[in-house]
Design brief:
Length: 421
């Protein structure tokens, strides 16, 4: 396995690649630092709308031609939007890397935003919003995000509200591209059967003439206590509880990930064993830490009955407090092993590897050696994990979102008092 190679064009456009011997395919894509948290309130949902428009035609290709050119060679092309990034990527055979990259560049640089296609995708996105609202264990996470980061771009939904989606125009899409799709906000990442020098030459041809422009800085995140509760006669009561956690660049990032894995990351975790295996309070329960550039959130989720939701919430808080006192070395070692194995297994996929390269360059403007990451994970001992658990429990501010038959659920103030006691 060759080491990753990173190169920056004069206009700020970055190219990072990693050759993976023995593969016949490659994953290539452009990661743009333009997600939901880069939107003004009047733009909420436009980053995702723009992603939908990516495959709807350019000055050189119709929507059908985009699909056919990739699928004619057996390839795959897609995109996604997160709160900090929009990504456009393809998986192709090694002889078709140039084609795949040309199509992606065409999508990014030459969109036509045909009025008819805008209306078609507007309808599709409105259907997507409706489907999300009908999926309780999806919508409750959006509500938690909003409760934790109220009146902030990072707290708004990625899909946006229906009334915004219904009003976006061609000019609105073009404006967002002009504001956020500069070369300094783009990372070309490729992994698999690729040659760095060849990809670099393609990047220079396809993106080298773009004019550098200043990046608009996202509004800093401010975690706040808040609760949202929606009572509805569903079969399950959906419970989410959030506490502020470290961002990607924080020294405690790896500690937070190891703790979340031990606390609620798998079948052997404390939450799963106590809530499901020993007490049968739920079918699904977990904890995770989602991180951003400047903050993060540890989220506990459980789905249970309306009668059990109060007891389940109490148990989650009690287990978090107990972890600060008696999290064991065996639990921490298991979590470290799971984290390392998950990362290493993921690196066997060129798509996962390209994603990782882009993410690391976006965070650090470099690709830390794999050994450096493993050393950081191995350095997390039980003392660090217990200290982190105590810091989580002692914050004094939490967010909560509840959906379903939740009339018997504890209120947020009661749970935060219990956490601090």
């Amino acid at each position: 396995m060759s080491a990753p190679q990173l190169h920056r064009l004069p206009n700020g456009f970055r190219v990072v690649t990693e050759h993976m011997p023995g593969l016949e395919s490659a994953s290539i894509g452009i990661w743009v630092s333009a997600g939901g948290r880069h939107e003004r309130v009047s733009q909420n949902g436009i980053a995702h709308f723009l992603e939908h428009m990516a495959f709807k035609g350019t000055k050189r290709r119709s929507a059908l031609q985009i699909a056919e050119e990739i699928e004619d060679v057996g390839g795959y092309i897609n995109a996604y939007t997160s709160r900090e990034v929009t990504a456009y990527y393809a998986r192709v055979l090694k002889d078709d890397v140039a084609l795949g990259l040309d199509v992606i560049a065409d999508i990014l640089r030459n969109p036509v935003f045909d009025p008819h296609e805008i209306e078609v995708e507007r309808g599709v996105i409105l259907q997507e919003i409706g489907q999300s609202l009908d999926t309780p264990d999806d919508v409750v996470f959006d509500w938690l995000q909003e409760a934790a980061f109220p009146d902030q771009p990072i707290g708004r939904t990625i899909l946006g509200p229906s009334e915004r989606i219904s009003a976006f125009s061609r000019a609105d899409l073009s404006e967002f591209v002009a504001e956020h799709y500069g070369p300094g906000q783009m990372i070309l990442s490729a992994a698999g059967a690729i040659d760095h020098d060849a990809v670099l030459r393609m990047a220079e041809d396809l993106f080298g003439d773009m004019e550098a422009r200043p990046a608009l800085v996202a509004e800093p995140a401010r975690f706040a206590a808040g609760e949202r509760r929606e009572i509805k006669p569903l079969e399950q009561a959906h419970f989410t509880f959030g506490l502020e956690a470290p961002g990607y660049r924080d020294d405690a990032f790896f500690t937070s990930q190891v703790f979340a894995s031990a606390f609620g990351g798998g079948m052997s975790s404390r939450l799963f064993q106590e809530a499901r295996e020993k007490r049968g309070l739920c079918y699904s329960v977990f904890a995770q830490v989602g991180s951003y550039s400047d903050t993060g959130m540890m989220t506990i989720y459980a789905g249970t009955s309306g009668e059990d939701i109060a007891g389940l919430a109490d148990l989650c808080v009690d287990e978090l407090k107990r972890a600060a006192d008696d999290m064991s070395e065996a639990e921490v070692a298991r979590a470290r092993a799971q984290m390392k194995a998950g990362m290493l297994m993921g690196l066997e996929s060129p798509s996962a590897r390209a994603e990782r390269l882009a993410r690391l360059v976006g965070i650090w403007d470099r690709v830390p050696p794999l050994s450096e990451t493993i050393d950081k994970i191995d350095a997390i001992d039980v003392a660090r994990v217990r200290t982190f658990a105590a810091q989580m429990a002692g914050q004094g501010a939490a967010a909560m979102a509840l959906y379903g038959p939740v009339s018997q659920a504890r209120d947020l103030q009661t749970l935060t008092r219990k956490l601090a006691a």
